[in-house]
Amino acid sequence: MTRVHQVLSSAGPYDAVSVQARLWRELLGRHGFGGADHAAAIDPRVRREFAPLEDLDAGHGDLLVIRYSAYSPRLLGLLDRPQRKLLVYHNVTPPGYFWNHHPGVAVACAVGRAQLPLFARAADVCAADSEFNAADLRAAGATDVRVLPILFDPERLAARGSAPRGEGPLVLVVSRLAPNKRHDLAIAAFSAWANEHGHSARLLCVGEAVSPTYAALVGEMAASVNGHGSVALAGGLSQPDLNAAYATADLVLSMSEHEGFSVPLLEAFHFGVPVLARPAGAMPEVGGDAVLWDRGDDLAVTAELIGLALEDEQLGARLVERGHARLEQFEHARTAERIVATVEEALL
Amino acid sequence: MTSPEEAEAVAAEAARLRRAAGGYAGLDARGALDESIVAGEPSRELLSRWAVIEIEPDEVLYSTRPAGAPITWAKRLLVRLLRQYLVELEARQTRFNIALLERLGSLEQRVEALERDGAGRRDT
Fold first, then answer.
1. What global pTM score does this model have?
2. Distances (CA, A) of B58 to A211, A282, B55, B65, B73
């Protein structure tokens, strides 16, 4: 049996890279590939799914799929291995967002970006999940980059857990709590809209924090919201609970400044929830005309856009209709076919 | 109905009208995180601030494991027990950082002087 081993810098329960590794594993298994998934750092909650990197047992004819999203000193050792390598680049956030909040993450981002050329040169085949990320890979010296979108599996979105409690329109922000996601702007714009228009709406931020210190900082911002509207941080939610949140949401909001793909766009399209977002990184190529884009930097305009998206039913319906059409481009079978073809090509 | 393409302009006009009527008075033009985000290379001033290593254990030690509170407590206790050693370590790292920054500053001054000198020679 041909074996394909996936290697990540870190594995966790909710992050997009780990979720993609799981979906690829299922897909590869269905196509008769063996192998296992390894990570240099493993969250205790996913120890059953990911093995330590030192346990990687790859034979000569095996393929290593290196998922690159941050620096890890232990990933460098993979480059000297004799196996063929498929580099999948998920983007590395610019370190400037983290220097003042989490120096360790900033260092991992800075070195990760600096070392990308080493990985691009060592890989037999290079792939990125968006054109935005592919441009980074080309700048790092990769000459032939395949764009393989995120493998979007609607089956994961079927189970329903507990819906968020409370009354009034629900605005969701779905992303890791990290400085580049700009939860500060989302909270400020939402609060301004709720107070200006006198609406008792809810803003729910779903996602794990980059550190407890940063979670506390965003928590303070949420707690400082006065008047109309309420802001809550849910932390990381299980997929069924996240699905329930999407199913009851009236708007998905993103003020993020750096996105290598943005899976929540596709999830919102799937659940028929309108999206208001800044056109950051790969978001325009993923969202196309199905997103209400906020191109400026005036939070009062963002606040008014929140109001339009929530109150203009025809506008919301148009966005939802376009979102469903947009999803066809990311249809599971189509992406799966491209992934398997790339893996087979990398094995040659 | 507002089309998605028209929405931004409609929202901008609505915001302008509300501001004219005294609305959005308390809305800061900048986000709370703006000042903490470093665009491009860190400035000399920022490097000077970072050079001094003083780590508050309660801010950086935690555990992500289920029921991690006792683990966090044990980590903090360990750091307190090793405080004498860690303070010395911080001091030595700070000494190196500050000396390096001063050296960098004097090298920058020499480069500037050489560039001025070179420009003066070309002019004559």
1. 0.88
2. 13, 37, 9, 17, 9
